[in-house]
């Protein structure tokens, strides 16, 4: 198998938890679905997923070559990535339950084409998403197994598939899910607390590993 099964399982679980937590992408898709209907929600998700594929390809191409040329670079990126994950977890914990769904909504109706292009460009031009991809994926890559590019491809495919599944569902059920989130502030705080704790724990675990 070209990827460590334990890292693969950890990556899948962590990604699912991260995906089901309301974040910028989910809120954007939610807004598109609320304004343009299920089709707009799905196409907005497709736009976000397309940009994520670009991020994964860039991260894989650059970091794979770097890891092969300078093995120490992997350790450096891993430590920096771990620190970034801890930072994200702390931010989630500090701001749990404070998300504003209304800021995700877009004015007026939204065509499918506009939803797709908006999802593509919003995510593609977001430097935080590029940083997150570069910080997140290498944590689950094992250079000792070789075929680093293939490992990136597998993880990237899983990431995109889960993102499309979760955000696509949100887009289709935008109105109902939007109302649920607004009405259940306590539930959202608990989700944020769990997610923040997972990111902090994962970052600490990766930072102290040899």
UniProtKB/TrEMBL annotation:
Gene Ontology CC entries for this record: plasma membrane
GO molecular function: amino acid transmembrane transporter activity
Keywords: Cell membrane, Membrane, Transmembrane, Transmembrane helix
Segments traversing the membrane: 6-30, 72-94, 115-137, 149-174
InterPro entries with a match to the protein in the record: LeuE-type
Keyword Transmembrane: yes
Membrane topology: Multi-pass membrane protein
Subcellular location: Cell membrane
Name by which UniProt lists this protein: Lysine transporter LysE
Provenance organism: Planobispora rosea
């Amino acid at each position: 198998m070209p990827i460590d099964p334990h890292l693969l399982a950890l990556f899948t679980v962590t990604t699912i938890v991260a995906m089901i937590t309301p974040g910028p992408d989910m809120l954007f898709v939610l807004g598109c679905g609320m304004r343009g209907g299920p089709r707009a929600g799905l196409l907005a998700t497709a736009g976000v997923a397309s940009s994520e594929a670009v991020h994964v390809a860039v991260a894989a191409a650059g970091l794979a070559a770097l890891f092969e040329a300078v093995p120490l670079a992997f350790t450096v990126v891993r430590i920096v990535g771990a620190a970034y994950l801890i930072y994200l977890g702390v931010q989630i914990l500090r701001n749990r339950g404070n998300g504003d769904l209304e800021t995700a909504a877009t004015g007026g109706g939204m065509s499918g084409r506009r939803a797709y292009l908006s999802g593509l460009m919003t995510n593609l031009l977001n430097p935080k998403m590029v940083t997150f991809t570069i910080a997140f994926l290498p944590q689950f890559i094992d250079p000792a197994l070789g075929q680093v590019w293939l490992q990136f491809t597998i993880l990237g495919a899983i990431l995109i598939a889960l993102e499309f599944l979760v955000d696509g569902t949100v887009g289709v059920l935008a109105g109902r899910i939007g109302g649920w989130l607004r009405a259940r502030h306590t539930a959202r705080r608990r989700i944020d607390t769990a997610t923040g704790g997972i990111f902090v724990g994962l970052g600490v675990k990766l930072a102290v590993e040899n």
